[in-house]
Design goal:
Oligomer: single chain
Largest sheet: 7 strands, mixed
Strand order of the largest sheet: 1-2-3-4-5-6-7
Shape: globular
Length: 191
């Protein structure tokens, strides 16, 4: 990064799950010293880490996976115990993001067994109004449990309907098909 100073203005820390790294805060402190903006992409399973990073003002943007409604369906989509700590931790991370004042992104993978039109409508009504909501086409070759998630992808007409549902409730929505964004109403500045 030091060699690229002046060429790079933003750094995205992603994973695996980056909040599992014990030296994450120190790494972000070093990046900040170089006057580079930082964005963290996380599944939200470690709100205490997110809170510490927010407290130290080490982030410019916080991106959370929004796999399913923040109830028992989230646990199923994430493969965790619905009554256990991981699902509750994600709910706390969403609250931290909403209260942070930072640029925020929420990423939803449109996987048919987990996110249908009714589910997306519910998710849209409960997601806080701020931030960019990125809807991503499901890619079966990139999934950990193909048996649970299946091979089916939404077709273009279905994606258009899902995007319209999200836009009823949010101004900043982007539909990503493959790896190329289709619409860019709002992108996070510099990141």
């Amino acid at each position: 990064l030091e060699k690229q100073q002046g060429w790079i203005d933003g750094l995205v820390v992603t994973g695996g799950e980056p909040t599992l790294q014990p030296d994450l805060a120190e790494f972000l402190r070093q990046v900040r010293r170089l006057e580079v903006q930082t964005k963290l992409e996380t599944n939200g399973s470690r709100p205490e880490t997110i809170a510490a990073l927010l407290e130290e003002k080490l982030l410019d943007c916080l991106c959370l996976d929004y796999k399913a409604p923040l109830d028992g369906r989230l646990a199923r989509a994430a493969g965790v115990d619905p009554m256990g700590e991981p699902a509750a931790a994600v709910v706390r991370s969403f609250a931290l993001a909403a209260a942070s004042g930072l640029d925020r992104e929420y990423h939803t993978t449109l996987c048919p067994p987990f996110v249908d039109e009714a589910t997306l409508e519910e998710m849209a009504r409960t997601l806080e109004a701020g931030g960019l909501w990125v809807l991503q086409q499901y890619e079966p070759q990139e999934v950990l449990d193909l048996e649970q998630a299946g091979n089916r992808r939404y077709d273009q007409d279905e994606l258009t309907r899902l995007e319209a549902i999200a836009r009823k409730h949010h101004e900043a929505v982007m539909l990503r098909q493959g790896r190329t964004p289709r619409s860019r109403e709002k992108l996070t500045d510099g990141l």
